[in-house]
Write a structure and sequence with these properties.
- Helix content is 23%, strand content 33%.
- By secondary structure, the chain is of the alpha+beta class.
- It has one domain.
- The longest helix has 16 residues.
Amino acid sequence: MIVNFNFSKPVKGVKIANSMPKPINFKAGADTFEKNTKEKDIELTVYNPYVNTVFHIKTPVDLTKKQQIVITSKYSRFAGKKLVVDYDPQRYDYIFDKKSNRREKTMILVGHDERKPNEISYHFMSRSLSKEYGYVHLSLHRDPRADLKESSFLDRELLINYPKHKIQGPRVIVEYLQNWEDSKKGGVGRLADKLAVKYCIENNIKPVIISNADRGSHVAHYLRGKRFLPPEKDTSSYDYLAKNYGCTNLNKILAKLLKDSEKNEEKIDLGDLGMFPMYMPEELAQKYVKELESEKKL
Protein backbone atom coordinates (compact mmCIF):
# COMPACT_ATOMS: atom_id res chain seq x y z
CA MET A 1 0.00 0.00 0.00
CA ILE A 2 1.38 3.43 -0.97
CA VAL A 3 1.05 6.04 1.72
CA ASN A 4 1.39 9.77 1.08
CA PHE A 5 2.03 11.77 4.19
CA ASN A 6 2.90 15.21 5.45
CA PHE A 7 4.38 15.96 8.85
CA SER A 8 2.96 18.70 11.01
CA LYS A 9 5.17 20.49 13.50
CA PRO A 10 6.01 18.40 16.57
CA VAL A 11 4.22 19.17 19.79
CA LYS A 12 5.91 18.73 23.12
CA GLY A 13 4.83 15.56 24.91
CA VAL A 14 3.19 15.73 28.33
CA LYS A 15 2.84 12.46 30.21
CA ILE A 16 -0.64 11.44 31.23
CA ALA A 17 -2.09 14.92 31.03
CA ASN A 18 -5.25 16.43 29.59
CA SER A 19 -3.55 19.80 29.17
CA MET A 20 -1.40 18.61 26.28
CA PRO A 21 -1.35 20.99 23.27
CA LYS A 22 -3.81 20.00 20.57
CA PRO A 23 -2.44 19.05 17.15
CA ILE A 24 -3.24 20.96 14.00
CA ASN A 25 -6.86 20.16 13.18
CA PHE A 26 -7.82 18.90 9.75
CA LYS A 27 -11.34 18.90 8.36
CA ALA A 28 -13.04 15.63 9.19
CA GLY A 29 -15.38 13.85 6.83
CA ALA A 30 -18.87 12.64 7.69
CA ASP A 31 -18.91 10.07 10.48
CA THR A 32 -20.45 7.27 8.44
CA PHE A 33 -19.62 3.60 8.18
CA GLU A 34 -19.95 2.49 4.60
CA LYS A 35 -17.54 1.11 2.01
CA ASN A 36 -15.34 3.92 0.77
CA THR A 37 -12.04 3.33 -1.03
CA LYS A 38 -11.27 6.96 -1.83
CA GLU A 39 -8.33 8.68 -0.18
CA LYS A 40 -9.16 9.58 3.40
CA ASP A 41 -7.52 11.99 5.83
CA ILE A 42 -6.26 10.08 8.87
CA GLU A 43 -4.88 11.98 11.85
CA LEU A 44 -2.68 9.94 14.18
CA THR A 45 -0.41 10.74 17.11
CA VAL A 46 2.82 8.82 16.56
CA TYR A 47 4.88 8.38 19.72
CA ASN A 48 8.56 9.32 19.87
CA PRO A 49 10.75 9.28 23.04
CA TYR A 50 11.31 13.02 22.76
CA VAL A 51 8.16 14.46 21.19
CA ASN A 52 4.66 13.57 20.12
CA THR A 53 4.22 14.23 16.43
CA VAL A 54 0.94 14.37 14.58
CA PHE A 55 1.08 12.63 11.22
CA HIS A 56 -1.35 13.86 8.58
CA ILE A 57 -1.74 10.88 6.30
CA LYS A 58 -3.66 10.35 3.07
CA THR A 59 -4.18 6.74 2.19
CA PRO A 60 -6.83 4.61 0.44
CA VAL A 61 -8.83 2.84 3.13
CA ASP A 62 -11.62 0.33 2.62
CA LEU A 63 -13.56 0.49 5.87
CA THR A 64 -14.96 -3.01 5.32
CA LYS A 65 -11.61 -4.86 5.28
CA LYS A 66 -8.68 -5.57 7.58
CA GLN A 67 -5.53 -3.79 6.45
CA GLN A 68 -2.22 -2.30 7.50
CA ILE A 69 -1.03 1.27 7.10
CA VAL A 70 2.75 1.60 7.03
CA ILE A 71 4.24 4.94 8.01
CA THR A 72 7.89 5.79 7.38
CA SER A 73 9.84 9.03 7.49
CA LYS A 74 12.83 10.54 5.70
CA TYR A 75 13.43 13.10 8.45
CA SER A 76 16.52 12.55 10.60
CA ARG A 77 14.73 12.67 13.94
CA PHE A 78 12.61 9.72 12.81
CA ALA A 79 15.38 7.96 10.89
CA GLY A 80 14.65 4.27 10.47
CA LYS A 81 11.32 4.59 12.24
CA LYS A 82 8.50 2.59 10.71
CA LEU A 83 5.10 2.42 12.32
CA VAL A 84 2.57 -0.19 11.26
CA VAL A 85 -1.04 0.62 12.11
CA ASP A 86 -3.53 -2.24 11.99
CA TYR A 87 -7.15 -1.59 11.06
CA ASP A 88 -9.92 -4.12 11.63
CA PRO A 89 -13.59 -3.16 11.07
CA GLN A 90 -14.49 -5.48 13.97
CA ARG A 91 -12.13 -3.76 16.42
CA TYR A 92 -14.12 -1.08 18.15
CA ASP A 93 -15.43 -0.03 21.54
CA TYR A 94 -17.39 2.87 22.98
CA ILE A 95 -16.63 6.27 24.44
CA PHE A 96 -19.13 8.88 25.66
CA ASP A 97 -20.35 11.94 23.78
CA LYS A 98 -21.06 14.63 26.39
CA LYS A 99 -23.24 16.80 24.16
CA SER A 100 -25.72 14.10 23.17
CA ASN A 101 -25.33 12.30 26.51
CA ARG A 102 -24.99 9.01 24.64
CA ARG A 103 -22.26 6.48 24.07
CA GLU A 104 -20.44 6.64 20.74
CA LYS A 105 -18.67 3.93 18.78
CA THR A 106 -14.94 4.45 18.33
CA MET A 107 -12.75 2.42 16.00
CA ILE A 108 -9.45 1.27 17.51
CA LEU A 109 -6.30 1.37 15.40
CA VAL A 110 -3.34 -0.57 16.80
CA GLY A 111 0.14 0.82 16.24
CA HIS A 112 3.38 -1.20 16.27
CA ASP A 113 6.94 0.14 16.01
CA GLU A 114 9.23 -2.52 14.51
CA ARG A 115 12.16 -1.28 16.62
CA LYS A 116 10.19 -1.57 19.86
CA PRO A 117 8.41 -4.93 19.99
CA ASN A 118 7.48 -4.40 23.65
CA GLU A 119 5.46 -1.26 22.96
CA ILE A 120 2.01 -0.74 21.49
CA SER A 121 -0.36 2.15 20.89
CA TYR A 122 -4.14 2.22 20.60
CA HIS A 123 -5.71 5.09 18.66
CA PHE A 124 -9.37 5.90 19.27
CA MET A 125 -10.83 7.07 15.97
CA SER A 126 -14.10 8.27 14.51
CA ARG A 127 -15.91 5.60 12.51
CA SER A 128 -14.67 7.10 9.23
CA LEU A 129 -11.07 7.20 10.61
CA SER A 130 -10.96 10.90 9.78
CA LYS A 131 -10.51 12.05 13.37
CA GLU A 132 -8.52 10.83 16.36
CA TYR A 133 -10.34 11.32 19.68
CA GLY A 134 -7.41 10.16 21.78
CA TYR A 135 -4.77 7.48 22.18
CA VAL A 136 -2.80 5.48 24.73
CA HIS A 137 0.78 4.23 24.43
CA LEU A 138 1.83 1.22 26.52
CA SER A 139 5.15 -0.52 27.20
CA LEU A 140 5.74 -4.04 28.54
CA HIS A 141 8.45 -4.65 31.14
CA ARG A 142 9.08 -8.31 31.94
CA ASP A 143 12.25 -7.50 33.91
CA PRO A 144 11.81 -4.02 35.43
CA ARG A 145 15.17 -4.09 37.23
CA ALA A 146 17.05 -4.76 34.01
CA ASP A 147 15.05 -2.10 32.18
CA LEU A 148 15.88 0.42 34.90
CA LYS A 149 19.59 -0.19 34.40
CA GLU A 150 19.40 -0.02 30.61
CA SER A 151 17.17 3.02 30.08
CA SER A 152 17.62 6.62 31.19
CA PHE A 153 14.12 7.56 29.95
CA LEU A 154 12.17 5.51 32.47
CA ASP A 155 11.21 6.85 35.88
CA ARG A 156 12.58 4.79 38.76
CA GLU A 157 9.26 5.04 40.62
CA LEU A 158 7.53 3.12 37.83
CA LEU A 159 9.93 0.16 37.90
CA ILE A 160 10.57 -0.53 41.59
CA ASN A 161 8.45 -2.94 43.63
CA TYR A 162 5.69 -1.95 46.04
CA PRO A 163 4.87 -5.23 47.87
CA LYS A 164 2.15 -3.63 50.02
CA HIS A 165 0.24 -2.73 46.86
CA LYS A 166 0.98 -6.05 45.08
CA ILE A 167 3.18 -4.25 42.56
CA GLN A 168 6.05 -6.64 41.84
CA GLY A 169 7.76 -8.19 38.85
CA PRO A 170 6.50 -7.87 35.24
CA ARG A 171 4.26 -4.91 34.50
CA VAL A 172 2.80 -2.64 31.86
CA ILE A 173 3.51 1.08 31.98
CA VAL A 174 1.12 3.64 30.54
CA GLU A 175 3.62 5.93 28.82
CA TYR A 176 1.17 8.42 27.36
CA LEU A 177 -2.59 8.87 27.56
CA GLN A 178 -4.41 11.64 25.76
CA ASN A 179 -7.99 12.74 25.20
CA TRP A 180 -7.88 15.44 22.52
CA GLU A 181 -11.46 16.56 23.19
CA ASP A 182 -11.86 16.26 26.94
CA SER A 183 -14.68 18.82 26.99
CA LYS A 184 -16.68 16.85 24.40
CA LYS A 185 -15.74 13.18 24.80
CA GLY A 186 -15.55 11.00 27.90
CA GLY A 187 -14.51 7.43 28.57
CA VAL A 188 -11.12 7.60 26.83
CA GLY A 189 -9.27 6.96 30.10
CA ARG A 190 -11.50 4.04 31.02
CA LEU A 191 -11.05 2.47 27.59
CA ALA A 192 -7.28 2.94 27.87
CA ASP A 193 -7.30 1.18 31.25
CA LYS A 194 -9.23 -1.76 29.83
CA LEU A 195 -6.83 -2.09 26.91
CA ALA A 196 -3.87 -1.99 29.30
CA VAL A 197 -5.35 -4.99 31.12
CA LYS A 198 -5.95 -6.71 27.77
CA TYR A 199 -2.32 -6.09 26.81
CA CYS A 200 -1.19 -7.80 30.04
CA ILE A 201 -3.39 -10.82 29.34
CA GLU A 202 -2.13 -11.11 25.76
CA ASN A 203 1.44 -11.16 27.07
CA ASN A 204 0.67 -13.76 29.76
CA ILE A 205 1.47 -11.56 32.74
CA LYS A 206 -0.60 -10.61 35.76
CA PRO A 207 -2.40 -7.26 35.23
CA VAL A 208 0.09 -4.98 37.00
CA ILE A 209 -0.32 -1.51 35.53
CA ILE A 210 1.65 1.61 36.48
CA SER A 211 1.46 5.18 35.21
CA ASN A 212 2.36 8.76 36.04
CA ALA A 213 -0.27 11.37 36.80
CA ASP A 214 0.85 14.82 35.72
CA ARG A 215 -0.58 18.30 36.23
CA GLY A 216 -4.30 18.49 35.57
CA SER A 217 -4.92 14.73 35.53
CA HIS A 218 -4.65 13.59 39.17
CA VAL A 219 -8.36 13.86 39.96
CA ALA A 220 -9.53 12.20 36.73
CA HIS A 221 -7.30 9.16 37.28
CA TYR A 222 -8.32 8.89 40.94
CA LEU A 223 -12.04 9.02 40.13
CA ARG A 224 -11.50 6.28 37.54
CA GLY A 225 -10.20 4.00 40.29
CA LYS A 226 -6.44 4.45 40.01
CA ARG A 227 -4.54 5.03 43.25
CA PHE A 228 -1.33 6.86 44.10
CA LEU A 229 1.81 5.04 45.16
CA PRO A 230 3.63 6.36 48.25
CA PRO A 231 6.42 8.85 47.53
CA GLU A 232 9.87 7.91 48.79
CA LYS A 233 11.23 9.80 51.76
CA ASP A 234 13.74 12.59 51.16
CA THR A 235 12.24 13.36 47.74
CA SER A 236 10.72 16.63 46.53
CA SER A 237 7.31 14.93 46.21
CA TYR A 238 7.39 13.71 49.80
CA ASP A 239 8.48 17.11 51.09
CA TYR A 240 5.84 18.93 49.01
CA LEU A 241 2.96 16.88 50.40
CA ALA A 242 4.22 17.09 53.97
CA LYS A 243 4.65 20.85 53.75
CA ASN A 244 1.38 21.70 51.99
CA TYR A 245 -0.99 19.08 53.40
CA GLY A 246 0.66 17.77 56.56
CA CYS A 247 0.30 14.26 55.14
CA THR A 248 2.23 12.26 52.53
CA ASN A 249 -0.62 9.91 51.54
CA LEU A 250 -1.99 11.51 48.39
CA ASN A 251 -4.97 9.13 48.30
CA LYS A 252 -6.16 10.39 51.70
CA ILE A 253 -5.48 13.98 50.69
CA LEU A 254 -7.51 13.69 47.50
CA ALA A 255 -10.36 11.81 49.19
CA LYS A 256 -10.72 14.65 51.71
CA LEU A 257 -10.51 17.31 49.00
CA LEU A 258 -13.23 15.55 47.01
CA LYS A 259 -15.48 15.32 50.05
CA ASP A 260 -14.96 19.00 50.87
CA SER A 261 -15.54 20.05 47.26
CA GLU A 262 -18.90 18.24 47.15
CA LYS A 263 -19.93 19.87 50.40
CA ASN A 264 -18.92 23.38 49.35
CA GLU A 265 -19.68 22.92 45.62
CA GLU A 266 -16.19 24.02 44.70
CA LYS A 267 -13.69 22.71 42.20
CA ILE A 268 -10.59 20.95 43.51
CA ASP A 269 -7.43 23.01 43.22
CA LEU A 270 -4.24 20.98 43.57
CA GLY A 271 -2.08 24.00 42.83
CA ASP A 272 1.30 23.05 41.42
CA LEU A 273 1.08 19.37 42.26
CA GLY A 274 3.45 17.70 39.81
CA MET A 275 4.03 14.17 38.59
CA PHE A 276 3.10 11.29 40.88
CA PRO A 277 3.16 7.53 40.16
CA MET A 278 -0.14 5.64 40.22
CA TYR A 279 -1.21 2.02 39.95
CA MET A 280 -4.33 0.09 39.09
CA PRO A 281 -5.63 -1.74 42.19
CA GLU A 282 -6.09 -5.48 41.79
CA GLU A 283 -9.86 -5.19 42.29
CA LEU A 284 -10.17 -2.76 39.38
CA ALA A 285 -7.93 -4.87 37.15
CA GLN A 286 -10.09 -7.94 37.84
CA LYS A 287 -13.19 -5.94 36.96
CA TYR A 288 -11.72 -5.30 33.51
CA VAL A 289 -10.64 -8.95 33.21
CA LYS A 290 -14.26 -10.05 33.74
CA GLU A 291 -15.49 -7.44 31.28
CA LEU A 292 -13.04 -8.68 28.63
CA GLU A 293 -14.04 -12.30 29.25
CA SER A 294 -17.70 -11.35 28.88
CA GLU A 295 -17.02 -9.59 25.58
CA LYS A 296 -15.11 -12.61 24.30
CA LYS A 297 -18.15 -14.84 24.84
CA LEU A 298 -20.42 -12.61 22.77
